[in-house]
Write a structure and sequence with these properties.
Chain lengths: 103, 103
């Protein structure tokens, strides 16, 4: 899988390559702070749909957790569906989304 | 922990008791289809906050997954924060929310 490396340093590139080498990983998306996919190994339509929804969901979840505990901070969200799993790892500048085949 | 058993059959009551016996479980909430806590082992304010947010989040996530794959169906969402983890198990009539201490 070819990964666009426009904005990533070698460490990030290595990590992304390592994640994508896992046979169960269907694709990864790095979402920038404006909500657009920065680099992805999925097709652009799927990536755009994931970006829009997952970013909103992670913001909503983070706000909800902060309402329950002010010192709380969201680390990861895992969505398990019948056939796939999606992981969202929020960060200040970028969000990482990993889509996996369910094992 | 005392659990209100208004609407639950013995099987559900046993399951809830088993979950609550786990030392890392801080509390459980059963949310009805109107979004109100049916039974909970948390205080009512925390339970209400979890109910409102987690139910919205699980609806949003389910719709997002259906937009990506029409046959997709959400089974569980796991929110991992610094100190706690929350699990939301959506169902047609009830949602189960489990809040755990992070191990």
């Amino acid at each position: 899988m070819a990964i666009a490396q426009n904005y990533m340093g070698p460490l990030a590139t290595n990590t992304m390559t390592r994640i994508n080498e896992n046979d169960n990983v269907l694709g990864t998306i790095i979402v920038n702070c404006e909500g657009f996919p920065e680099t992805t190994t999925l097709d652009s339509l799927t990536a755009a749909t994931y970006c829009t929804h997952m970013r909103n969901l992670s913001h909503h979840a983070n706000n909800a957790l902060k309402e329950i505990d002010v010192t709380g901070e969201l680390i990861i969200i895992r969505f398990v569906a019948k056939k796939t799993e999606a992981f969202v790892i929020p960060d200040h500048e970028f969000h990482l989304i990993v889509v996996m085949r369910k094992t």
